[in-house]
Amino acid sequence: MNSLERVRHALDFLAARRPCVDLRGRVMMPMPQGPIPPGVDLRDMLRQHIVGRSLACMARAAERRRASLASGDVAAYCAAIRAAVAGFYGPLPVGPHAAPVQATEVSRFEKRGYRLENVLFDSFPGWQVNATVYVPLDFAPPFPAVVIPVGHSGKQFESYQLPAQFFARCGYLAVTFDPPGQAGEKRPGNDHFVDGVRAYLVGETSSRYFVADALRCIDYLATRPDVDLSRGVAMTGVSGGGTTTTLATLLDERIAVAGPSCCLTPLADLDIAQCYAGCPETHMWRRYAEGIDEVDLLCAAAPTPILLMAGEYDEVFRIADTRRLAGEVAAFYAQAGAAERFTFFVDRAGHGYTLAQARQFVRFMDRWLRHTPDRPLSDLPDESFRLDPDDELRCHPRTDVHMRSLTLARARALEAARDRDAGRIRAAAAAIAGVEGPVGRPAAVEGEPFRVWTHDWQSLLLRPEGGIELPATFLCPPGGPHGAILHLDDGGRHRLLYRHGLLARAVGFLEREQAGLAVLTVDLRGWGDSAPAMYPYEMASWGGLDRYVAYATAALGDSIMGMRTRDALAALAYLRSRPEVDGTRIVVSGCRLAGVIALLVAAIDPAVAGVVTWDSPVSFRALLEEEAYAWPADAFIPNVLLHFDLPELAVSLPCPVHRINLRDGGGRPVQPADTSAGAPAVEADAEEIIVAALRRGPGRSRPARG
After folding, report:
1. Which run of H or E residues covers position 488?
2. CATH fold of 71-411, please?
3. Is 354 within 8 Å of 347 (Cβ atoms)?
4. Which CATH number is correct for 421-695, 3.40.1790.10, 3.40.50.970, 3.40.50.300, 3.40.50.1820?
5. How many angstroms separate the CA atoms of 657 and 650, rounded?
6. In what helix (H) or strand (E) does residue 149 lie, and over which residues does it extend?
7. pLDDT tens for each residue of 5-37
8. Is there a contact between 572 and 608 (Cβ–Cβ < 8 Å)?
9. The pTM is what?
10. Are the C-beta atoms of residues 192 and 180 closer than 8 Å to each other?
11. How many CB atoms lie within 10 A of CB 27?
12. Where are the domain boundaries for CATH 3.40.50.1820 in the chain?
C-alpha cells in the first residue's frame, strides 16, 4: 500500500466513525484509541461539585433562619447554632472550671496615658499566651476591659497597637496577644496553613488554639483587682482577630459586647462561590453540613450587642458582600426584638483596624458595657498616637509547645488507647469514606477496543454520581477471564504505563509467551485529567488547589479522600462486571497518596484479592512528626486517627498486602532502622517485587509487615 492509499484508508476509517460534539459545539472526530470527550469540563468538575454541595448547605441554613423568625422561636435557633459551634471545639481549658491562671510579669513600660505590662500565662498546658496589657493611667480603677485578638499578623502592628492605646486612653484596660504563627512571637510549629491542617487528623480544629487564647485572657483579667468584670468584657479584632471574636462570643457569656472588623461575608460569596481557600481554622469538620454560615454566627449572638465594622476598600472582604451580610443580621436582630443592639459601621479604609473604628467601638462599649452612652470622650487626635517599639511588647513565650507538638501528643494518646480489632477498623474505614452499603457499578461510556501488541486498549468514562466523570483506561489481553489490577495514581492514570513503565510491565505488556493480566487504571476526581484548574485566589501564598479542596470538603463533612475512595469502589464494581475479568482475582494497586485509597478500598470490599502500594505515606502520624511535610493538604483525612493509622489498617485487611518503598512525612524513603511508625523495611528492588506481587495468584502475596 503506497502513501496515497494509506491516507485514503485512514480517511475511510475516520469517515465510518460517528463524530461527536464538544462542550463548545465543535464537531470532533473521535479516534478509537483516544480519550472519550467528557460531558463535563474535567478541569472544573471537582470544584463545581464542591461548590454546588456547599451552596445547598448554605441554602438550608438560610431556610432555617427564616423558619426560626417565622415561628418566633429565635431562642431555639440561637441555642442550636451555639451548640453546633461548641461542638466544633469540645472541652477547652478555659472558664471558671479551668485551672487557675498563673501569670508571670515579664516587663512594664510607662507611656503617655497608659502603661504597658507584658505577661505570660498558659492556655493549653505549656502553651503560653504572650499578653500585652494596656493599663489606663488617667482613670481610676477598677477598669472595664476589652480583649483584642490579633489576626494573621502580630500584636506589634498598627491595627493592634493603636486601637489598644486608644482604648486605654479612654479608660478601658486592653489586652492583646499574638495568634499562632504569622508575624508574632509564636511562629515555630504554629503555621496557620502547614500546621493548622494537621489538627484534622485527630478530630480537632486548629481554631481551638485561637479561641482558647482569647477566652483565657478573660480568665486572666478575672485575676486582676484593677479590672471590673461585673458587667462582662468586650472583645474586638480585625480579620482573623475578628473571626476569633465572633466565635468566642458564642462560646462565652462573659463577652458582653463584640466588635468584629473586616472579617465577615456570607460563605456563599467569598469562601464558596469565589473559591477562597481561607484558613483551615475557619473550615471546621462539617461546618457547611451543619449550616453554620457567617450570618448565623452573628445572628446566634443575639441579643449580645455587636458592632460590625468593615473597610469600604477592603482588599479581601468585598464591601458589597459584607453589606449584604449586615443587612441580614440587622433584620434578624430587629425581628428578635434587639434592633438597637446591632450596628454596622463602614470605615473609609482598607483591610485594617483604624482609629476611626476604635472611636466607634469606644462609643459602643460606653453604651452597652459601661451603660454611660453620653460620657464625653477626650480629644485624642490621630497624631497623638505612635507605635511603641517592638522590643517593648515582647514576652518571650515558650516555643517548644505548639500546634504541631500538641497535635502529635494527641495522636500518640489516641494510638495508645486505640482498639485494634480488625473488624472495627474496617468498619471505621467505611465510615471515614462515607460508605454505608455496597457501591454499585457506575454508568460508563465505553470506547471501541484498540489492539496494541498483546492487549486491547479501551478508553472509558465512568460516572459514579451526577456531575462526576472519571477518565479511565482498560487494558486486557485476548481471551479470559483474567486476573486484573485496579490501579490508582495521584500522578495520573497513565504515568506508569508510559514508555513500558512499571504498570505496563506488571500486566505483561509485550510478553507474548506468558499470559498477561488486565488492568483498569482510573483518574479519581481531582487527579490526572480531572486536576482542577487554578482560580484567582490561589495566587496568594497561602492559597493552593490542595488546600481549597481539603478545607472545603472537610467543611462539607465529606473529605476529598472519602470521595475518591467511593470513586475507586465504583471503578472496582465496574471492573468486576467485565466478562474478560475474573472478579475473584482483582488486586488493587496504589501509588503515592493513592496508596491510602487502595488500603481503604480493600478494607471496605472484602473480596479484593490483594493490595500493593508503593511510594505512599508510612503513616498519618509521620505527617505530624515532620516539621515540614511533603504531602498535599488533602492527605490529612479528618478524624482518621480517632480510629486507626495506616499500619493498623494494613494489618486489619483480610487479603495479602504489600507496602513497598514507604515514605515518611518529608517524602523520603523510610529506612530499615526507622521502625517507629510501623514501617516495613524498604525492598531491595521495588520494581521486580511489584511486578512479581501483581502477577502472583491470589493468596500468595506476602502480607504487610509492621
Report:
1. strand 482-489
2. Rossmann fold (3.40.50)
3. yes
4. 3.40.50.1820
5. 7
6. strand 145-149
7. 655 555 555 455 455 555 566 555 567 788 999
8. yes
9. 0.92
10. yes
11. 8
12. 71-411, 421-695
